[in-house]
Design brief:
The complex is a heterodimer.
Chain A: H1 2-14, H2 16-65, H3 75-81, H4 83-87, H5 100-131, H6 133-146, H7 151-162, H8 165-190, H9 194-203, H10 207-245, H11 250-259, H12 263-291
Chain B: E1 5-16, E2 19-31, E3 36-40, H1 47-55, E4 62-67, E5 70-71, E6 79-82, H2 94-106, H3 112-125, H4 141-154, E7 159-163, H5 171-188, E8 191-196, H6 199-205, E9 208-212, E10 220-225, H7 234-237, H8 241-257
Helix pairs in contact in B: 2-3, 2-4, 3-4, 6-8
The chains are: A mainly alpha, B alpha/beta.
């Protein structure tokens, strides 16, 4: 204990002031320079380019649509005409006059039900098809044909079957998003390496254990690819379906605005749809990253 | 006296459409408890097929595999396999990979704490306890093979089946792992059946070396006893006359009488 004490005393006695000044000079800027500045630069490098491009696009749009005979509204006109829609997404002024936030939520609710069903049934059917060669041979050609049918083409059939717009819209979401989930799950299950099957065989895992401990983790990257394509398709389908079935969703809002020639409202709704679609995709991608971490072999 | 593990007149052929390929022909081999037996042969001679048959992963065409006089024809933890490419589940940690086997095989006979202790014990046996929370992608090839070995040992198998366990490793790692396997065999007295294509490895590790002829319709060409005392040390054996003689015998079999003709 005594030795180091003496040593430090000796050093500080030899040159006390110089050492302190130097340390302070180095320490203070190092936090800003080493941590804050690079972080800010990194954020700026990602945020500034899209903002610049947005400004360029808005300017071009403004210039093109400023002329008196323009068919579409310029950004400045949209701002004044649809001001209430832009600043307050959650106002309620009457049964049919509500903010776009509420409309988006109603559409999302339909998507949640339809997409949730598609996820459950898609993964289930995909597992069966991936496991059984005969199910694959029998069902795959049919699925390959059905999946190319436009979401809207299903709508009359589902309206005839359900005789109500709400379940019809949900059915359209389901039928649109289920195919990529089925097909990707089936591919994932078929691609489970023989090694993992051998391990399961040696351990004598039963069917349920094999499903939860080998199949689902092994096929998870494929399943999430299907789920991610599926959520994008559902969001595409709901807007189209609501334009035809009515109700209070964001799709019907666009149709309603078109019928009353409120073009500015339509543009605002399009921005809402785009942003929500982007967020949905990010959410599924984020879940995929968390769930499938470590599932890629080697 | 009936032997511990008996491969009894096993034939194996594969069918592809109407074509039938005979891979193994009349294989008969008896292995005693605690014995370390290697099967050596050129690639494609069907030695992995034979191991898979003993493991129960492939059915025999004719004949039978008997373990303690009971016929075995499906996979089970009593014949644990260390696969050539480790076959660890990449989404589980090292600990979870071994624990999965322990939980499945020993759940009826041991409590939760005992299963945890047994998992750790086996990881310590292969010197991998320090990496128990790592995922397979984060450890080296030799370490993965160690974990695979721990997983197989943890099942308390009657026969340990090694399918070219050191094949994918570099020479130094391989030597290190061979020493570990020898030490574990010495300590636990397991019955081991190992597939290899490395002559030195076969002589160093085995009590008996089974040499297979080239396919199709591969047979057991010759069985060589390795009368070297254990524990064996590779440095001392390098100049040992018996070791060199055994090595010579295997080399002669493989490269003179049954040299690999097919262009690889």
């Amino acid at each position: 204990m005594n030795m180091p004490m003496r040593k430090s005393e000796a050093i500080s006695a030899a040159s006390p002031a110089v050492a302190e000044v130097l340390r302070l000079k180095v320490a203070k800027p190092s936090y800003v320079q080493a941590k804050l500045l690079p972080a800010l630069t990194a954020i700026a490098a990602r945020v500034v380019p899209p903002l610049v491009m947005l400004a360029v696009i808005l300017t071009v749009w403004q210039v093109l649509c400023m002329k008196p005979g323009a068919t579409l509204p310029a950004p400045s006109k949209i701002w004044t005409e649809a001001y209430d829609l832009i600043v307050d997404p959650f106002f309620v002024a009457g049964p049919q006059d509500i903010g776009l936030g509420w409309r988006v939520l109603i559409s999302l609710q339909r998507v949640a039900i339809g997409y949730g069903l598609a996820g459950l049934i898609g993964i289930g059917l995909g597992t069966i098809i991936g496991q059984s060669v005969w199910a694959m041979r029998g069902l795959d050609p049919i699925f390959q044909i059905l999946r190319t049918i436009s979401p809207l083409a299903w709508l009359p059939i589902s309206l005839a079957a359900f005789r109500d717009s709400q379940p019809s819209a949900i059915f359209v979401i389901f039928i649109t998003s289920v195919w990529p989930i089925i097909i990707n799950t089936a591919v994932g299950i078929r691609n489970i390496p023989q090694d993992y099957r051998n391990v399961a065989a040696v351990l004598r895992l039963n069917h349920l254990e094999f499903f939860w401990k080998i199949m689902i983790p092994s096929a998870a990257p494929y399943i999430f690819t299907g789920l991610r394509i599926g959520i994008g398709l559902s969001w595409l389908a709901i807007v189209a379906a609501e334009m035809l079935t009515g109700g209070v969703g964001v799709g019907f809002f666009i149709w309603d605005a078109w019928n009353s020639s409120r073009l500015s409202d339509i543009v605002v709704a399009l921005v809402y749809i785009g942003v929500v679609g982007f967020i949905l995709d990010r959410i599924v991608a984020g879940i995929a990253v968390i769930v499938t971490r470590g599932t890629t072999a080697n | 006296m009936t032997s511990y593990l008996k491969i009894d007149h096993v034939d194996k052929s594969f069918h592809r459409g109407s074509r039938e390929t005979e891979v193994l022909k009349d294989i008969t081999l008896s292995i005693e408890s605690g014995e370390y037996v290697s099967i050596i042969g050129h690639s494609g001679c069907g030695k992995s097929t034979l191991l898979n048959i003993v493991a129960g992963l492939l059915p025999v065409t004719r004949g039978a595999v008997l373990l303690e006089s009971q016929e075995v024809n499906e996979p089970g933890p009593d014949r644990a396999v260390v696969f050539q490419n480790h076959s660890l589940l990449p989404w589980l940690t090292v600990y979870q990979n071994v624990k999965l086997a322990v939980d499945k095989v020993l759940s009826s006979t041991r409590s939760r704490d005992e299963r945890h202790d047994w998992t750790m014990h086996n990881l310590e046996l292969v010197q991998m306890a320090h990496a128990k929370d790592k995922r397979p992608a984060e450890i080296s090839g030799g370490m993965k093979q160690r974990v695979g070995l721990a997983r197989a040992l943890a099942m308390e198998p009657k026969v340990l089946l090694l399918d070219e366990p050191f094949g994918a490793l570099d020479a130094l790692t391989r030597a290190h792992l061979q020493d570990s396997v020898m030490a574990i065999h010495q300590k636990l007295g397991n019955t081991v059946l190992m597939i290899t294509h490395d002559v030195d490895e076969a002589v160093l590790l085995s009590d008996r070396i089974v040499m297979m002829t080239n396919g199709p319709a591969a047979r057991i060409g010759e069985v060589l006893e390795v009368p070297l005392a254990r524990p064996r040390r590779r440095l001392e054996l390098a100049a040992n006359a018996t070791y060199l003689k055994c090595r010579q015998r295997v080399l002669e079999f493989l490269y003179e009488r049954h040299s690999f003709v097919e262009a690889a």
